[in-house]
Amino acid sequence: MYIAWAILLQIAALVCSTVTLAGGSYAGVLTAALVFTLMAVALLILPFKRGGVATKIICIVLALPMVFVVLDFIRRAPHAF
């Protein structure tokens, strides 16, 4: 169950991180992307600790988009805030 929610949160984080706004500030979507990805990784901690080898591999693969979202946040944050 945690893995399913983590997948949805990572998809939402990637969508928020890659969205292009015609007008307005990126601060809201960047913050939402960072919060979504951190929540997804937090949800993956319990299956990672309790699961077998296959579950640990799945958790690691699902946590990889966090690197993109965090690096995108670091790149865009000085201009958005």
Task: Give an account of the 3D structure.
This protein is an all-alpha fold. The chain has one domain (2-80). 84% of the residues lie in helices and 0% in strands. It contains 4 helices and no strands. α1 (2-18) runs antiparallel to α2. The longest helix is centred in the middle third of the chain and has 24 residues, at 27-50. The chain is elongated, with a radius of gyration of 14 Å. The mean pLDDT is 93.
Query: How many structural domains are formed by the residues?
Result: 1
Helix content: over 70%
User: Roughly what fraction of the amino acids lie in strands?
Assistant: under 5%
Can you tell me the overall shape?
A: elongated
Q: What would you report as the Rg, rounded to the nearest angstrom? A: 14 Å
Distance between the termini: 35 Å
How are helices and strands ordered from N to C?
HHHH
Quaternary:
single chain
Query: What's the rounded overall pLDDT mean?
Result: 93
Count up the helices: 4
Low-confidence stretches: none
Structural class: mainly alpha
Number of strands: 0
Largest sheet: none
